[in-house]
Amino acid sequence: MAYSKLKALLKKAGARTIDALWGAIAEAIAKIRVLRTLTAPVDLTRI
């Protein structure tokens, strides 16, 4: 699942150079991390 999201974000970025590709990879990983934390289940037993 993460791989397909990474692939889609990289295609959307359309990087044409190696430096731009590495920047797009970093941004895509950051977006995936945010999405994972927002959609992670909440443990209500600790409240």
What does this structure look like?
There is one protein chain. It contains 2 helices and no strands. It has a domain at 7-36. The protein is mainly α and 47 residues long. The mean pLDDT is 86. It has helices at 2-13, 18-39. 72% of the residues lie in helices and 0% in strands.
Radius of gyration: 14 Å
Q: What best-fitting shape do the alpha-carbon axes yield?
A: elongated
Please count the helical segments: 2
Report the β-strand fraction as a percent range: under 5%
**Low-confidence regions:** none
The succession of helices and strands, N to C, reads HH
From the helix content, strand content and strand pairing, which structural class follows? Answer: mainly alpha
How is the main sheet built? none
Give the termini distance in whole angstroms. 30 Å
Query: What value does the average pLDDT take?
Result: 86
Helix coverage percent of residues?
A: over 70%
Number of strands: 0
